[in-house]
Design goal:
elongated, 12 strands, 35% strand, mainly beta, 185 residues, 2 helices
Amino acid sequence: MKKVIILIAIAIVSFSIASNAQNASANATQNVSLVLSNAIAITFTGSGTSTGGAVTLPFSTVSDYANGVTSTAQQLQVQSNLPFGVTVKSNAANFTYTGTYTTGTTMPVSGVLKLLVSANTTGGTVATPFSTSAFASITSTDQNLINNGTYGSNQLFSVQYQATPGFTYPAGTYTTQVVYTATQQ
């Protein structure tokens, strides 16, 4: 009987030790912080850069001079993590001239070069005097083009140019740069 009691005691002690043995564990923690800065970019989708391809408006017929010439649509993309606006202007008040004539070649940009917003999926509105149905003159000062564009990575709008120089200027090439600026609001 003594042997049975000893065996039962050993079994109880072994069971008690086995039930107290657990898998060991440990934890480690680490904070991860994202430090975001405001970011904005505007690019031409045709080139994928901030410099669009050259737009050439050839005047070949009397009808071109009388009615003007319109470009194909030029698409731009804005990427911004905040709402934004877009302005437009020419880089100078007058076109630069390349050609053989020495007089009568000063052509103003305003009144000759016009712009139409032909598509707008920025979530914003087209600013006056520009619209989606009528051309408005480009000037050499910043003019609001898109107001309250929505943040995102693929905010698109397209523009078309129309030139109406009339019959006042001699043959040659008249050039200006059109500058688009996207600014976070």
